[in-house]
Amino acid sequence: MLILVINSGSSSLKYQVRELDETGADTEKPVLAEGIIERIGQPDSEISDHAQALDIVSGQLEDVLDGRTIDAAGHRVVHGGERFQAPALVTNEVIRAIDALAPLAPLHNPPSAAGLRAMREKWPDIPQVVVFDTSFHTSMPAEAWRYAVPESWYTDYGIRRYGFHGTSHDLVTGLTAELIGVPRHNFNGIILHLGNGASATAIRGGRSVDTSMGYTPLAGLVMGTRSGDLDPSIVTHLMTSHGFTAQEVDRVLNNESGLYGISGHTDMREVLHAADAGHRGSQAALDVATYRLAKYIGGYHIAVGGAQAITFTAGIGENSAPFRARVLDRLEVLGITYDHELNLVTGSEPRLISAEDSAIKVAVIPTNEEMAIAQKTYQVVNAAQAWGQGPGF
Ligand code: ADP
Fold first, then answer.
1. Binding residues for substrate, per the UniProt record (predicted)?
2. Is 21 labeled as catalytic in the residue annotation?
3. Residue minimizing CA distance to atom 14 of ligand 1
4. What is the pTM of this model?
């Protein structure tokens, strides 16, 4: 089965064609093609919209597919709100619902809806599935997702914690349980997805019970350019006393804060390099980022009733031994010890880096959101076909 995985950003469209076997598992060489179309809808760009981007994709795929056809498409969608608790087969009503969630994700949901509409028009016979970044976190209890603000802010404006990176947290939760030999439904742990965007998730019984991102992906950990948690009065203070507009504060907190704001670097490799060379700002950025992360881990250890494992994943989590070491050194009080040699091992296999006597296992597990989206797409399409639902129902 050939699955086209699509990730539509506001001005870009990333895609992969993946081949799954008849059981829905990856084939030996699962990625047949991949690419990115950029600058969609930009003033001086020749690509005016997502429909045109798809035309380019189909052109690029012609040679690769060599007469074979795409069986289904799986789309990453950032926001599913409270409605989408699982991946869904795309209908016109589903596209309208994704568009209607635009107030919650103004930069992400409209281009996703545009991509879905363009696909439906271009290839009406290909079943499409949407996989949401938020779905995995719909299992959070109210004590974790409610903010202590007036009830009407929740009922009228949808102000609550939603959480993101769900596809990755979900996948890595299953892989961690497998690695330590615990049935998923009995697994309690903490997943650290540390990329440009970063979030930690508390897993109890294999499900998300808390996560560090909130109403938007700005909350929680220190990220490449995002501040993570801060006192909300800072925002109003900057606006009332220092002449900032709402848009300016928003831009600075999203694009000029985090590691970049403190150190001048967004890439963890550069921050570590500069810190080693004695750069004060980079040392401070690492201190703030690792201290914040350690605090979340301590809190989530309580949230999950005692973690069996802590897993590092995504760009920094998978690749940066020095960053992992700086975090783990702060966790000694939890009885966590790690093997310095194992921490230095690189590779694409899930692996443990904790020492034999560590009270909590520590794992490094590569994430793969495209693979997870392809597999979910396969499952949804198979289930729909079993029920006799064609793509146009
Ligand atoms: P995203 O998908 O959020 O854009 P990724 O998960 O690809 O991000 O992570 C990107 C980040 O991973 C980079 O900004 C970089 O800081 C970090 N990274 C990648 N490789 C390394 C490495 N070898 N050492 C340290 N950091 C790394």
1. 76
2. no
3. 267
4. 0.95
